[in-house]
């Protein structure tokens, strides 16, 4: 290690972390020290260090969600210093590095706040509402038969790219967390428009839009005020254009589908 | 519930109603503004009184008045329904929140801005619209016809400093409401396209500022120069 590089000096931080035993218990912000933190650690690794120290002291470690730790699974969450996934744009919390903070900083860490995402424990929230929305129509039914040739269905590159961009949504819920209305519209719009643009998805497009929006409303997410905080905080840059597409799909489906 | 009622009580359905009524109300603002420019005519109010007499008695306008009322009612009804739902979607807020880093103030405060507009509307209608219906205005002879002298009521009201202040503040609120609302309505209706969206955003901005400056100029003109 280049010892005299100030950017690589270990940091000492003060954390204010939301602790809550379970969904029923009352929670509160607790203060912890994070000492000797390498700037090269990810935010989650920093929490691992803190948790190890807490465990040594016999304190219940801080519960937080994580899995791949490389920005692809969507499990990590955390509202860090007032921002979903922390201050950086286009990153998940596992991709956020401690060098983005300064020695001596106080960092406030809270769970995603939305009634549709009840708290499991501490910073870990239940995002199964997203699963239920997916199950309501976020798929393409494939009937059995021979495998078609990959080039049998022509799709213009521009459309394929747009559908792919929408498909990059990792279901993390940062859009809901950042939205003043706790609206899930960016997530649902990505899931709906991803299929609506492709010939394979068009077959079930109307029922999909109707059912996924109905489930979204049942789960208790807010409505979209076109504030745009979701897209600004989305780690993969899902665009607001998808919400316009969802609105078109939904209204068109409602006016013309056979479902009454 | 019928499919129709279900559609328009869904979150997206309600937003579609808000966007259509919102744009309709924008068209009303244009008509109202152009008509009110008669106030600037230096003829002792004759042109303005003729215009307001026409607006109050023309059968087509009278019918449109009810369409306008319906526009406001649906806009406000769904505004309340959505704002309540949106508040209820997060009952525990963040201890630390920095929304200013990812969004505009006006977009997050449409309910507050709308409420200011609503309070203004009630006072405005009570003062200028209601008296034309209840015969509470002085009469004036124009072209051999006795008609309401609404001009005098306007000119007198705009001499009161707090009344002028109320108008100016309300027009600022309306401008902020529309800076977000105008372009938002197109997005709600599904129009988001790289060819048109930048133009819609610019147009919305210019529209909001010009219309609200236009309305605010009337009380200011009477207060300062009459
Ligand atoms: C002349 C008067 C008004 C005009 C021209 C107007 C126009 C608009 C427009 C164009 C929108 C955007 C719709 C969309 O996002 O799709 C909007 C949204 C909104 N308006 Fe108004 N409005 C007016 C009065 C009011 C009043 C009196 C209220 C409330 C009491 C109100 C409350 C709202 C709210 C809360 C929204 C945001 C809804 C949401 O996105 O969740 N407005 N308005
Ligand atoms: S739209 Fe973006 S922020 Fe929302 S769930 Fe998908 S990846 Fe996460
Ligand atoms: S842990 Fe998988 S995206 Fe962060």
TrEMBL record, chain B:
Taxonomy of origin reads: Bacteria, Pseudomonadati, Bacteroidota, Cytophagia, Cytophagales
Record-linked InterPro entries: Cytochrome_b-558 (IPR011138), SQR/QFR_C/D (IPR034804)
Give the highest taxon in the source lineage.
Bacteria
Q: Does the keyword Magnesium apply?
A: no
Write out the entry's keywords from A to Z.
Membrane, Transmembrane, Transmembrane helix
Q: Does the keyword ATP-binding apply?
A: no
Mark the transmembrane ranges: 16-40, 60-80, 110-129, 160-182, 203-224
Q: Which SUPFAM superfamilies match?
A: Fumarate reductase respiratory complex transmembrane subunits
Matching NCBIfam families: sdhC_b558_fam
- Its recorded name reads Succinate dehydrogenase cytochrome b subunit
Q: Which residues form the signal peptide?
A: none
């Amino acid at each position: 290690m280049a010892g005299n590089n100030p950017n690589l000096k270990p940091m000492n931080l003060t954390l204010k972390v939301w602790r809550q035993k379970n969904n029923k218990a009352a929670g509160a912000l607790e203060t912890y020290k994070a000492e000797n933190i390498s700037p090269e650690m990810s935010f989650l690794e920093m929490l691992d260090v803190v948790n190890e120290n807490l465990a040594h002291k016999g304190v219940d470690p801080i519960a937080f969600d994580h899995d791949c730790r490389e920005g692809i699974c969507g499990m990590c969450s955390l509202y860090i210093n007032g921002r979903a996934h922390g201050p950086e744009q286009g990153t998940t919390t596992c991709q956020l590095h401690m060098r983005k903070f300064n020695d001596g900083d106080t960092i406030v860490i809270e769970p995603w706040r939305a009634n549709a995402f009840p708290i499991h424990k501490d910073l870990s929230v239940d995002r199964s509402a997203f699963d239920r929305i997916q199950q309501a129509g976020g798929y393409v039914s494939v009937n059995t038969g021979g495998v078609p040739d990959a080039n049998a269905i022509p799709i213009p590159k521009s459309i394929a790219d747009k559908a792919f961009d929408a498909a990059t949504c990792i279901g993390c819920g940062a859009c809901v967390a950042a939205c003043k209305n706790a609206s899930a519209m960016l997530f649902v719009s990505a899931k709906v428009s991803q299929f609506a643009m492709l010939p394979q998805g068009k077959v079930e497009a109307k029922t999909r839009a109707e059912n996924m929006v109905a489930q979204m409303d049942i789960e208790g997410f807010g409505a979209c005020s076109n504030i745009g905080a979701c897209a600004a905080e989305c780690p993969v840059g899902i665009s607001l254009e998808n919400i316009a597409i969802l609105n078109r799909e939904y209204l068109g489906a409602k006016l013309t589908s056979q479902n009454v | 519930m019928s499919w129709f009622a279900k559609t328009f009580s869904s979150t997206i359905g309600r937003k579609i109603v808000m966007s259509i009524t919102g744009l309709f109300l924008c068209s009303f603002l244009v008509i109202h503004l152009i008509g009110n420019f008669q106030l600037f005519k230096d003829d002792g109010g004759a042109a303005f009184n003729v215009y307001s007499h026409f607006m109050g008695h023309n059968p087509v306008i009278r019918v449109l008045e009810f369409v306008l009322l319906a526009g406001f009612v649906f806009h406000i009804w769904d505004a309340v329904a959505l704002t309540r739902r949106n508040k209820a979607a997060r009952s525990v807020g963040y201890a630390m929140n920095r929304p200013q880093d990812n969004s505009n103030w006006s977009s997050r405060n449409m309910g507050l801005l709308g409420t200011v507009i609503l309070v203004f509307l009630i006072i405005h209608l009570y003062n200028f619209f209601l008296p034309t219906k209840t015969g509470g205005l002085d009469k004036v002879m124009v072209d051999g016809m006795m008609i309401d002298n609404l001009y005098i009521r306007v000119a007198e009201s705009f001499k009161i400093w707090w009344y002028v202040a109320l108008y100016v503040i309300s027009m600022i609120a309306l401008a902020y409401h529309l800076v977000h609302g105008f372009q938002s309505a197109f997005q709600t209706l599904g129009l988001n396209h790289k060819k048109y969206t930048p133009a819609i955003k610019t147009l919305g901005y210019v529209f909001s500022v010009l219309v609200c400056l236009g309305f605010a100029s009337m009380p200011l003109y009477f207060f300062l120069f009459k």
